[in-house]
Design brief:
The chain has 172 residues and is mostly beta strands. The chain contains one helix and 13 strands; from the N terminus they run H-E-E-E-E-E-E-E-E-E-E-E-E-E. The strands form four sheets. Strands 2-8-7-4-5 form a five-stranded mixed sheet, with no helix packed on it. A three-stranded antiparallel sheet has the order 1-3-6, with no helix packed on it. It starts with a helix and ends with a strand.
Length: 172
């Protein structure tokens, strides 16, 4: 009987201190930062938050964003915007890959149209060309290139190209 009482006490105490996670929204657009509020973490230096595509394993490299909690038991973390899709915000204790709690979020393109313009219409030979872009997907593999008018977008036809480095809007 005494063992049962102790076991119930331990179970009840563990339920009281379970980690929690919430976000300021359930659905984001591709240009909005993800604001995550967490509590009841262990407060260890290597507790961390990861954002993963829904259904992916916790393996390192599957996360699209992550950050340490900085030995805080509770706090707020802000992450850069994400490409359209469904994701899970996952909390992990002490540099582990065991999910303590998760919350699903959706990033919706929400009709946002990707645009690319230049800072002017005519450039002198050898003058740097500046491309201004908006509403890219935010993926680290996004890139932008300059092609001769009338050419196809086949690789090798580009005059120059640059990685977007996860930026959604900016200038290259």
């Amino acid at each position: 009987m005494f063992k049962r009482i102790i076991l119930l006490g331990i179970l009840f105490a563990s339920m009281l201190s379970a980690a929690t996670v919430s976000t300021d929204k359930d659905t984001y657009s591709t240009n909005q930062q993800i604001v995550v509020t967490y509590s009841e973490m262990e407060g260890l230096n290597h507790d961390w938050i990861g954002i993963y595509p829904t259904g992916s394993s916790n393996d390192w490299g599957n996360q699209v964003r992550w950050d340490w909690t900085g030995d805080k038991e509770q706090g707020v973390a802000t992450f850069a915007p994400l490409a359209a899709g469904t994701y899970e915000v996952r909390l992990f204790y002490n540099n582990s890959f065991t999910t303590q709690v998760s919350k699903e979020i959706t990033v919706d393109a929400n009709g946002a149209v990707t645009t690319v313009t230049t800072s002017k219409e005519v450039y002198l030979p050898e003058e740097p060309i500046s491309a201004i872009f908006n509403n890219m997907s935010g993926d680290n593999q996004d890139w932008i290139a300059i092609y001769p008018k009338g050419s196809t977008s086949d690789w090798g036809n580009q005059i120059d190209w640059k990685w977007m480095e996860g930026d959604i809007s900016g200038e290259r």
